[in-house]
């Protein structure tokens, strides 16, 4: 609540200069009143009218200049945070779309921008063509000579043809043709690649990006909203002088008087207390939460105008009510904001609210960020029953469980029959064969043992991707699904651990039991390794993966959640698989939308999934359907 | 949920009311009345859609109408009321747009707008009372020297306002 700066107009002149000017003006007006009362004190020379005329014209000119300035100069607009919608993840391909939508004037920048897009497109094209020998034997050559597609416009992206930016330059009057712009060619090339890669053309509409302006700092400033009024007074004053209209001088005096009223008010003081209540403070993921913010004026002064914007973090969306309020508060009075937010998961802390107080005339405003008493964090807890069945891969521990192995041993499913060995239990002897042939043989069953799985969540910065900036990110979906899946696996008597690919460490060694389940789910809900918003720090791949592999028990398999939004994810998962730990990749689909950039991102991700499958990893391409259904579909492919 | 930054109908009505007062004050002037009516309509539309520049254009037209009415020979008190009406059109309209842009319609902006409008109206009323007193003095026929002193004094006072 501290004053950082003041930008009251005229500060540069100094209070003394302004005071003398105002005093001189008042004195002159008093003299005018005296002359009006006793006109015989001064001679009424007609030549004085020239002075009046010139002064009047000067006043009009000054007024017009101030009016132009007032209209042209933007008043300081209060940039407050957009707290009403979520804004978490990056949209895959959005960078390409932005680049296609803009055309830098600088030819070098333009060339660099286009080259970057073509390079990325070329990488994707080569990867796709490598899987389609029926289309092109040599991908690079096919791209160069344009034989990879029937669409000449799509093929032209990879030629060295220079495409003019301006429409006029693209028109060939002689041939009556118009050269297609670069963005259209890229779009056609992405379409052609998508067809070759078997990626379905997306139809989703483009979601709007949310403005994530930084919160303003504490400050006191002038709103400059009365400048036009002063201009009106000057113009009325000058016009009255030029046309000898005393009525206009009165009009000018009235206008200036109202502008003078605006200057009477000093800087508004903000003495308020705020208290926030959150109900419930440990909701289930996705459950609506009611937030109540109470603001009380504890000062002695009336607050004629107060604007309050609660610090709803980007991870939450306001779904009912409003986190904003404007009001006037007399001393001791309170106002209460009640609104509902929804967030997907995690531990999410509120920011301090922004409180803006204005003087009664609105001339001055004070922006503050007062602290809040009460609850400032929502923790989404995983307390629901699990409902996502999952099949672990055939790598079991020596402990008894429900994972069917290829080994013979204790179990209920028939495995084989072998010759009787002394010590075999009588109940396992195949008595029918004894009766038929007289040979003693022993029935063996598939051994059922406990599996050891580590759920690994990709929470690196690139993993915070989403098809809809206002929806959950891939990490949100991963964490929620992981909580469900961990419960299921533990219920099947397997041992489960938890780890993260994140700048912040998270490791819970595989174990079983209800207390372990509670501990693991609590870590999923509250660990800093899975923040609601993308971390700023980078993930150190070499060190992080080495540490993870060292920690993994020898018999552990890995269930990894990753949107495969970058090539690094594939390399990490392949190196874990290569270290002897079978990996199942559950990949929430972050791509969607019909723009060229999004479609290109979709093709790239499809290629990464193919790379994972080629390396022996089991993959689950998880779209909008429940994970349970995606797992069932994937398991049919695994068994087939 | 997106922010609805259109000022509430109550604020639009207030702007229309002040514009109407300014226009009615110009009735005796004839032609400038049209400027008052046109400016009021433009300003009202500007507030209704939350367009600050449209509001400014409307308020300027109303102000120009007030000055034109003064040139046409309207009495001082009515010129003052018309000019103050133009100022209030801008003041209340800008307040409505500013508050609603910050808190949205759902943020109950009408309270702050109404309190601000009430304070400005009381101030304008006080100014009109003072002007009514001065009207008895400025009835024409005063010496030019008085006009010069009033003019220069007015410029000094207005120039020193820190708004």
Give an overview of the whole structure.
The complex is a heterodimer of chains A (640) and B (163). Chain A is an alpha+beta fold. Helix content of chain A is 37%, strand content 23%. In chain A, strands 15, 16, 17, 18, 19, 20 and 21 form a 7-stranded mixed beta sheet that branches. The two termini of chain A are 67 Å apart. With 163 residues, chain B is an all-alpha fold. Classes of the chains: A alpha+beta (640), B mainly alpha (163). At the A-B interface, α1, α2, α9, α10 and β6 of A face α3, α4, α5 and α6 of B.
The termini of chain A sit apart by 67 Å
Order of helices and strands of chain B: HHHHHH
Per DSSP, the total helix count of chain B is 6
- Report the count of strand segments of chain A: 21
Q: So what's the overall shape of chain B?
A: elongated
The pLDDT mean of chain B sits at: 87
Taking pLDDT < 50 over at least 5 consecutive residues as the criterion, the unreliable ranges of chain A are: 1-6, 202-213
Summing up helix and strand content along with how strands pair, one would put the structural category of chain A as alpha+beta
> Helical content of chain A, roughly?
25-40%
Q: Tally of extended strands of chain B? A: 0
- Average of pLDDT of chain A: 80
Into which percent range does the helicity of residues of chain B fall? over 70%
């Amino acid at each position: 609540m501290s004053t950082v700066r003041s930008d009251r107009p005229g500060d540069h002149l100094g209070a003394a200069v302004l005071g003398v000017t105002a005093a001189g003006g008042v004195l002159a007006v008093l003299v005018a009143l005296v002359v009006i009362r006793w006109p015989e004190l001064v001679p009424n020379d007609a030549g004085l009218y020239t002075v009046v005329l010139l002064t009047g014209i000067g006043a009009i000119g000054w007024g017009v200049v101030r009016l132009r300035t007032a209209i042209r100069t933007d008043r300081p607009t209060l940039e407050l945070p957009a707290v009403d919608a979520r804004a978490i993840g990056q949209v895959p391909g959005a960078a390409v779309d932005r680049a296609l939508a803009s055309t830098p004037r600088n030819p070098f920048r333009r060339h660099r921008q286009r080259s970057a897009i073509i390079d990325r497109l070329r990488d994707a094209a080569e990867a796709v063509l490598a899987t389609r020998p029926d289309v092109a034997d040599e991908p690079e050559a096919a791209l160069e000579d344009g034989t990879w597609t029937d669409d000449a416009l799509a093929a032209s992206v990879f030629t060295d043809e220079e495409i003019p930016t301006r429409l006029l330059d693209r028109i060939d009057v002689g041939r009556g043709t118009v050269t297609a712009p670069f963005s259209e060619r890229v779009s056609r090339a992405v379409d052609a690649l998508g067809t070759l890669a078997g990626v379905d053309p997306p139809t989703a509409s483009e979601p709007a990006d949310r403005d994530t302006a930084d919160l303003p700092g504490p400050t006191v400033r002038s709103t400059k909203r009365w400048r036009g009024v002063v201009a009106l007074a000057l113009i009325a004053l000058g016009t009255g002088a030029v046309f000898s209209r005393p009525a206009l001088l009165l009009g000018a005096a009235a206008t200036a008087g109202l502008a003078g009223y605006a200057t009477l008010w000093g800087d508004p003081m903000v003495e308020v207390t705020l208290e926030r209540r959150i109900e419930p403070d440990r909701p289930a993921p996705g459950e609506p939460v009611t937030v109540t913010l109470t603001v009380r004026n504890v000062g002695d002064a009336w607050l004629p105008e107060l604007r309050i914007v609660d610090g709803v973090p980007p991870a939450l969306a306001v779904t009912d009510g409003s986190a904003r309020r404007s009001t006037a508060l007399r001393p001791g009075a309170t106002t209460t904001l009640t609104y509902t937010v929804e967030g997907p998961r995690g531990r999410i802390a509120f920011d301090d609210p922004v409180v803006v107080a204005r003087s009664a005339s609105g001339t001055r405003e004070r922006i503050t960020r007062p602290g809040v008493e009460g609850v400032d964090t929502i923790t989404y807890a995983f307390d629901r029953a699990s409902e996502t069945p999952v099949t672990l891969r055939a790598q079991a521990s020596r402990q008894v469980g429900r994972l069917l192995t290829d080994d013979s041993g204790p179990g209920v499913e028939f495995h084989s029959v072998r010759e009787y060995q002394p010590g075999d239990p009588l109940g396992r002897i195949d008595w029918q064969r004894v009766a038929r042939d007289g040979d003693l043989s022993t029935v063996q069953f598939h051994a059922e043992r406990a599996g050891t799985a580590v759920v690994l969540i990709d929470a690196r910065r690139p993993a915070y991707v989403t098809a809809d900036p206002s929806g959950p990110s891939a990490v949100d979906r991963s964490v929620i699904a992981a909580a469900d899946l961990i419960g299921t696996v533990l219920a099947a008597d397997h041992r489960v651990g938890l780890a993260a690919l994140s700048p912040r460490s998270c490791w819970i060694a595989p174990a079983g039991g209800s207390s372990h389940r509670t501990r693991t789910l609590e870590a999923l809900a509250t660990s800093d390794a899975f923040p609601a918003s993308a971390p700023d720090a980078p993930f150190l791949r070499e060190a992080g993966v080495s540490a993870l592999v060292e920690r993994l028990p020898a018999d552990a398999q890995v269930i990894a959640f990753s949107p495969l939004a970058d090539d690094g994810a594939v390399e990490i998962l392949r190196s874990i698989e290569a270290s002897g730990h079978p990996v199942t990749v559950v990949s929430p689909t972050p791509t969607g939308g019909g723009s060229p950039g999004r479609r290109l991102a979709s093709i790239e991700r499809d290629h990464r999934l193919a790379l994972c499958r080629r390396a022996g990893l089991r993959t689950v391409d998880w779209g909008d359907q429940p994970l349970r259904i995606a797992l069932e579909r994937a398991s049919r492919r695994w068994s087939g | 949920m997106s922010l609805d930054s259109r000022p509430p109908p109550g604020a639009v009505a207030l702007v229309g009311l002040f514009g109407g007062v300014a226009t009615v004050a110009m009735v005796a002037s004839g032609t400038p009345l049209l400027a008052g009516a046109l400016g009021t309509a433009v300003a009202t539309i500007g507030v209704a859609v939350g367009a600050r520049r449209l509001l400014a254009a409307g308020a300027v037209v109303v102000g120009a109408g007030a000055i034109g009415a003064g040139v046409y020979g309207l009495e001082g008190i009515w010129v003052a009321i018309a000019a103050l009406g133009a100022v209030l059109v801008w003041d209340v309209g800008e307040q409505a747009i500013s508050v609603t842009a910050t808190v949205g319609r759902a943020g109950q902006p009408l309270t702050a707008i109404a309190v601000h409008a009430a304070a400005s109206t009381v101030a304008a009323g006080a100014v009109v009372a003072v002007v009514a007193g001065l009207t008895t003095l400025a009835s024409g026929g005063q010496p030019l020297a008085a006009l010069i002193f009033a003019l220069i004094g007015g410029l000094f006072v207005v120039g020193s306002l820190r708004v």
